[in-house]
Amino acid sequence: MEAPYQGVILGISFNHTIVFAKDRQESAWFFTTYFGLPDPVQAGPFLAVQLEHGATLDFAQLDGEVFPQHYAFLVSEADFDAIYGRIVAAGLEHWPDPHSGRSGTINHNDGGRGVYFNDPSGHRLEIITVPYGGWPQDRSVH
Ligand SMILES: [Fe+2]
Q1: Rounded to the nearest whole angstrom, what is the distance from the C-alpha of residue 72 to the centroid of ligand 1?
Q2: N or C: which end of the chain has fewer CB within 10 A?
Q3: Under a CB-based contact definition with an 8 Å cutoff, are residues 99 and 117 in contact?
Q4: Which of 77, 140, 90 is nearest to 119 (CA)?
Q5: Mean pLDDT of 10-25
Q6: 15: CA distance to ligand 1 center in Å?
Q7: d(CA 123, CA 135)
């Protein structure tokens, strides 16, 4: 079944989410360090990390068990090189698939590159250079 709005710009973009952390300082700095982003900014009770298109990840302290979530990021080939380079240089464990097999390697799904690694709270982060299923024919949906 074809999506009813395929190829149409919907005007809806992701803006922010709260990322719970055992130590919000550690997690926010982990993220900006590996992703090569500007320093986290205090925003109320959160440490906000700025992404593309005005979106932020708002790191929040959680006193209690953090239930691991999955956060995936589409990055350029150059950014993948930089981020993956930091992962390897730090000896950070990483996997080519979400089931933690074949530690120390990346995937080439959809003709791109991808890798999974954990943040300090156990969230499973993923970087990919090509969206799942490949680039859409009509790039205007981005
Ligand atoms: Fe994913």
Answers
A1: 5
A2: N
A3: no
A4: 90
A5: 94
A6: 19
A7: 26
